[in-house]
Design a protein that fits this description.
Chain lengths: 236, 283
């Protein structure tokens, strides 16, 4: 069954190469599976940006697609986190907090699914996460993580905007980042009212956080099992 | 060899060619990296001319950048003076809200300074600060928000409108700042600060306001949760649920409502829309 799955494909998408293969190979011999994939591919049809020899790795790709995949990876992380938060509500949660957390979860799912659909065949696969360092029963642990993820998200979008060449993508990123900033402010205020934009988020010039992809990825790395290859992302 | 064939060939080695056509800066780099698979000599002059045309004007001119920054400066002047006057109005701001209004005021003043400095560094001239009428009376001082500096709820209504409008205004000019590097990054960093402010003002309204409904840190549909039709233009269009042609409601089979979908994406406002919104506040 496994073999026929691969031999049917003459041109596996990157998503399949990155994820489905890993998933399927988890149950069967890896070497044999890879051999089938490679031999079934027309050399000219292999996407230029795909260079995944490690089945536990996704390659974000290059150019605007790479930047959008980078955003997609971060949205996957946030969505997965809030899905867990809503499923296992922390002790002492108020009705209002539960409602807001569900809303935030839905925003992040919307972002994630939007990128998945917009990227189409260029989308990286589903990442695997490790939230074992988070105590989902603890309000402090959950809110601190939410704040950290939202602040990192804001800084990531702020730092990646300049890498986009297509102005339409830039506006889309802008539509999302201000919502992440609203989330960040909300969780900060829940932790300590009035800290929505304190000096840990906004500097003396009134400017919010900004980070390059090379600075963001190590921050989220402890939560992501899948290796993210960002080698081809544009830089500055 | 026709153009379609050439683009098909380019697309094979560079799936993002159509995106790249927007980038004059990367042309040479990209073509040289394609060299191995695609002989440059195969590209006819007409294609070169076409590419050149499609690349032209992608990055805004210095004059346009300065114009955008002066536009942003106008809005920051408005916000900075608004919060400064509020802080100077005794009895307006409850003690619990005072530190955060001070934080916001400090940021808006910093934005004014930052934009003025940036405009000068680009060889431009920062526009002068307009005279404002925060009652929205166009200078009469007796506009519909006449008690803006004596009634905290009215103050918060105007503050929310300014912040949400500010977020939308920056977004509306973002496309023109594409590929401007540090300038774009700075604009984005101000933009998200306005988003934080907006969320907090909305939380203050939840705490101190009356008749605010279920006001949230984010914008639901085109609801202002403010009992005044005057602020509606700042919210019209926020009910959008289609992004880049993709319907967000129910996307991927998930239970994403129109409310969720509208909240998840803030929408831009054009310069004309924003100027119409702030016009009653500018004398």
């Amino acid at each position: 069954m496994l073999k026929s799955f691969f031999t049917q494909k003459t041109h596996p998408s990157r998503e399949e190469v990155n994820v489905s293969r890993r998933k399927f190979l988890g149950y069967a011999g890896a070497a044999a599976g890879i051999a089938v994939v490679v031999s079934s591919c027309n050399k000219d049809e292999l996407p230029m940006t795909t260079n995944n020899t490690n089945v536990n790795e996704v390659n974000l790709g290059s150019g605007d697609v790479g930047v959008l995949n980078y955003a997609y990876a971060l949205e996957q992380l946030e969505a997965a986190f809030y899905i867990r938060v809503v499923m296992s509500q922390y002790s002492g949660i108020t009705g209002m907090e539960a409602t807001r957390l569900m809303e935030v979860r839905d925003h992040e799912i919307a972002h994630r699914e939007f990128f998945k659909k917009a990227l189409g065949a260029n989308a990286i696969g589903q990442l695997e996460f490790d939230f074992s360092s988070i105590d989902f029963g603890s309000r402090n642990s959950v809110l601190a993580t939410a704040k950290a993820f939202e602040d990192v998200g804001v800084s990531a979008y702020n730092g990646a905007g300049r890498l986009l060449m297509n102005p339409d993508y830039l506006v889309l990123a802008g539509k999302i980042v201000s919502v992440e900033a609203r989330h960040a402010a909300y969780f900060r205020d829940l932790i300590s009212f009035g800290s929505f934009a304190d000096e840990t988020a906004v500097n003396a010039m009134g400017l919010d956080l900004t980070r390059k992809p090379s600075e963001v990825l190590p921050i989220v790395d402890p939560y992501i099992v899948t290796t993210i290859n960002a080698d081809q992302l544009p830089t500055y | 060899m026709n153009l379609n064939t050439i683009f098909t060939e380019i697309e094979k080695v560079d799936p993002e060619v159509y995106d790249r056509l927007n980038s004059r800066r990367n042309t040479l780099k990209n073509f040289s990296s394609m060299g191995k698979k695609l002989a440059l000599t195969a590209i006819p002059v007409t294609l070169g001319a076409l590419l050149k045309k499609s690349y032209a004007g992608t990055r805004s001119t210095n004059d346009t950048v300065i114009e955008i920054l002066n536009y942003a400066l106008t809005l920051e002047y408005l916000e900075a003076e608004f919060y400064a006057k509020a802080l100077a109005s005794g009895g307006l701001i409850p003690a619990q809200a005072n530190p955060s209004i001070q934080t916001i005021a400090r940021h808006e003043a910093a934005h004014v300074n930052f934009l003025r400095t940036t405009i000068i560094s680009l060889g431009g001239t920062p526009i002068a600060k307009p005279t404002f009428d925060f009652t929205a009376g166009n200078g009469s001082g007796t506009g519909p928000f006449a008690n803006v500096f004596s009634n905290f709820e009215v103050f918060l209504n105007v503050a929310q409108t300014f912040e949400d409008t500010g977020v939308r205004a920056y977004k509306g000019r973002a496309a023109e700042l594409v590929q401007t590097g540090d300038i774009l990054t700075a604009a984005l960093r101000i933009h998200s600060v306005e988003g934080r402010h907006a969320a907090h003002i909305r939380e203050l309204r939840k705490l101190f306001g009356s008749g605010v409904g279920d006001v949230k840190p984010w914008i639901t549909l085109n609801m202002s949760n403010i009992n005044s039709p005057l602020v509606q233009p700042s919210y019209n269009g926020e009910e959008n649920t289609v992004q880049a042609g993709i319907q967000i409601v129910g996307i991927g089979g998930f239970d994403i409502s129109a409310e969720d979908a509208s909240e998840a994406f803030d929408e831009p406002l054009t310069k004309e829309q924003v100027l119409a919104i702030v016009d009653p506040f500018i004398v």
